[in-house]
Amino acid sequence: MVYKYGSSGNKIIDDFIRYTQINLVNENGKMEYVPYEQFINIEFIAEGGFSKIYKATWIDGLVINYSNKKYIRSQNYTVVLKKINDSKNITSKELNELKIFYDYSSKNKDDYYIARYFKITQDPNSQDIMIIMPYYDSGDLKRYITKDFFNINWSEKLWRLLGIAIGLDQIHKLNIIHRDLHSGNIFTGKYDSMFIGDLGISKSATESTDNTN
């Protein structure tokens, strides 16, 4: 994919984006820098230990097809912007969440059960890095269960449980350990689909257990 928007100006981010563009066959794992001006209707949703979550509208939107040597985008696309706290001077190590997804995408063609990481942008005021991710209307598993548990039949419950199990099986087969799996990191999509997200503190099972950094 040709860069449409140019570079972020951050060497670590740009080097990582360039690496995914050159080396990754699966389009889903290829990163791109998107200017913050591309986002409107930005709305704060929640805050975690390491990040703040916003809902936004991406004007150009996600690439959904390629035709006549042009990329076709889904304009005015609703996304989540995950702002990493104090990431102005981000290091290569702090890109772990994106690197884990890149590693997963490079070895697995299907990402039906793992939440995607679309692109990267940057807060113009704080200069913090923001990861562009899917927005799930039904929210996370905790919200879904709290709201609809007694209205969900057992067939649907088991189907969603199967989706979670398949997602875990996929990352475990690639020697990736999530290390922070809970109902707030599992998202509910359309057609009873489930997506495992928040790979921020995941790690390769082949790494030394003595390395706690």
From TrEMBL:
GO cellular component: autophagosome; cytosol; membrane; phagophore assembly site
Name of a matching Pfam family: PK_Tyr_Ser-Thr
Enzyme Commission number(s): 2.7.11.1
Alphabetized PROSITE patterns for the sequence: PROTEIN_KINASE_DOM
GO molecular function: ATP binding; protein serine/threonine kinase activity
Keyword entries, A-Z: ATP-binding, Kinase, Nucleotide-binding, Transferase
Stretches assigned to the Protein kinase domain: 39-213
GO biological process: autophagosome assembly; regulation of autophagy
Source species, domain of life: Eukaryota
PANTHER family per record: NON-SPECIFIC SERINE_THREONINE PROTEIN KINASE (PTHR24348:SF22), SERINE/THREONINE-PROTEIN KINASE UNC-51-RELATED (PTHR24348)
Name of the featured protein: non-specific serine/threonine protein kinase
Source organism per UniProt: Rhizophagus irregularis (strain DAOM 197198w)
